[in-house]
Amino acid sequence: MRYLDAAATTPVRREVLEAMWPYLTGEFGNASSHHGLGEAAARALTGAREQVASALGARPSEIVFTAGGTEADNLAVKGLALARPRGRVVVTSVVEHPAVLEACDYLERFHGFRIHRLGVDADGVVDLAEAEQVVDDDTTLVSVMLANNEIGTVQPVAELAAIARRAGALVHTDAVQAVGSLPVDTAQLGVDALSLSGHKLGAPKGTGALWLRRGVALEPLVHGGGQEGGRRSGTENVAGAVGLATALQTVTGPERPGERAALAAARDAFVREVLAGVPGALLTGHPEQRLPGHASFCLPGTSGEAVLLTLEQEHGIVCSSGSACAAGSDEASDVLLALGLEPAVAQTAVRFVGSTAADFAGAAPAVVHAVTTVRALAG
Ligand code: PLP
Q: Are residues 104 and 84 located together in one domain of the fold?
């Protein structure tokens, strides 16, 4: 099998599992317990917090471990908006992950916030001029993702953060797809909060973190024993935190820039071959400002689902039609419609996301063949 669905999830890395193993077995203590086992667990948690912080250019006390990216997004959007006395408007974008969009809808329905959803251009880049116009002293929070899961476009988050700061608004970015694929430094971005998820990096599903700038008030969503500095109650997932930290250290290691450049070059060659071999194919998302391992297309004259099935059955290639969350639904993706694509074209979307250059090697002829087969069958 050739796995080209790394935006959906990744397998747990061997070194991650090995780092976690002791905290699932012999060192199984509760990090709040006052005995040797508990203290060992607390030390492991402290070490994991330090590692996550150092990978993001942050302080350990600014890391809140969560059960994944969705929780981190919810905690940021709801927690910052509800804790913040000023303003009644949350500014986000039309291409956010549902974890952010639905959290905004919740604020609108139950807490009287108004939500402004910024538009995007044909490459999926958020409209900075619109942000300049709408972000003002009634804006509580701006939440825009660092990179999009469906089309790979990298957003100008530092510019958006500057606009928000001038207006005195807080800024959150969903960096779930970006961390590990791009250099991510909280200070350079100028944001106040950043979400990440372990299972996109080779840590287990259900692990993640929210980075929260020191001194920024947050209303917790989960109440209880006051763990994570009162920001997220619940007995800590020590092994999960250790796994997340180990994965993060690996994907931000010193050899990564070279690997990313090789991945982007292999992806570019794949894109060129697919576009040359499939008449009418179009790349979705920004051609350059995109995640290095991400290639997404619309392939008119097919259905994304049919291409996906043909690729798996005939070529052993695993990919995705649109986003995993929308998989199985016949609805055209809102992200693709936001680019201005016709629904019939948006329904032909297929996404290929690799983790290494080798993932793309020799894959393009199979894609061309699968599309040709599906088109021939469609008639
Ligand atoms: N945000 C983005 C951009 C994502 O791609 C995803 C997952 O696909 C999430 C948030 C949710 O993360 P998790 O699956 O860890 O809940």
A: yes
332 band by pLDDT with thresholds 50, 70 and 90:
confident
Alpha-carbon gap, residue 181 to 122, rounded angstroms:
23
- The last residue of one of the domains, among 251, 274, 300, is 251
The mean pLDDT value for 67-79 works out to 98
pTM for the whole thing?
0.97
Please state the atom number of ligand 1 nearest to the C-alpha of residue 96: 3
Helix, strand, coil shares of the chain as percentages rounded to 5?
Answer: 45, 15, 40
- pLDDT tens digits, 300-329: 999 999 999 999 999 999 999 965 455 555
Say if strands 208-212 and 139-143 run parallel, antiparallel, or are unpaired: unpaired
Instruction: Show the domain range for 89.
Output: 14-251
Rg, Å, the chain Cα set: 21
Active site residue 325: yes
Looking at the structure of the chain, the number of domains it has is 2
SS3 of 205-232? CCCEEEEECCCCCCCCCCCCCCCHHHCC
Q: Is the pLDDT of residue 54 over 90?
A: yes
Report the pLDDT averaged over residues 208-234: 98
- Ligand 1 centroid to residue 369 C-alpha, Å: 31
Give the dihedral sign, CA 151/153/157/159: negative
Using the mean position of ligand 1's atoms as its centre, give its distance from the Cα of residue 69 in Å. Answer: 5
Give the CATH number for residue 245. Answer: 3.40.640.10
Residues within 6 Å of ligand 1 by CB: 68-70, 73, 97, 99, 145, 149, 174, 176-177, 197, 199, 208
Shared-domain flag, residues 127 and 93: yes
Q: How far is CA 128 from CA 113, 118, 174, in A?
A: 22, 9, 17
Catalytic residue among 104, 298, 319, 325: 325
